[in-house]
Amino acid sequence: PPELHILNNCSPGQLEGLCSFLQLSTCPEHLLVCFCSWLLALTPDLSYTSAAILAEQLFLKRVLSLTQPPSRHLMAALTSFSSKYSQPFCRVLVAAVLREPGEGAEQTKLVCELVEECLEPDCVRLVLSQVLGVPLSEKLLPVVQAVLGRQEVLPPELFDLLVLTLCRQAPAFATSLNYAKLVTAVLTMYQTQVS
């Protein structure tokens, strides 16, 4: 709809106010899919800041409150939005999931699914750097495993950070099966780089 062009002309504060006025954070999920498909068609593309605000307003509360797998509508909306605005999406959503204390099993599964099926290679690397920027926990090991499963070429500094983190954290994961699988995957996939 032509009205959506206003999104390109809003200041960050105005955009937050507009999202609040439209109650985007609580709109029904089938409408969320429709809204995201409109965003994909919008020209010119949203600015990074606007996309980050929309990622937060549209998805953050929904994702952080998941206690069961996301509905197909929510998954479709997430996939659609992240296909075009993956950098701001990762910086807002993935970062929030990583900061959340506790188990966060559904959130972790969701991030793994997005890494495995939706995100572009540069965003997969961004997710890995975000994970390695916080203390590793049992909850985050599947995310690293999902990144490795993509078999992307990692820049040397990111690969070094991965190996260093795995080495430093080894004592904390002495009895972890997931950690053992992760180390095995690194040794198998990157055997020429590991000394």
TrEMBL record:
Xref: InterPro entries: FANCE, Fanconi_anaemia_gr_E_prot_C
Location of the Fanconi Anaemia group E protein C-terminal domain: 1-194
A cellular-component GO term for this protein: Fanconi anaemia nuclear complex
GO BP annotations, alphabetical order: interstrand cross-link repair
Pfam family, one: FA_FANCE
Protein name: FANCE protein
Top-level taxonomy: Eukaryota, Metazoa, Chordata, Craniata, Vertebrata
Gene: Fance
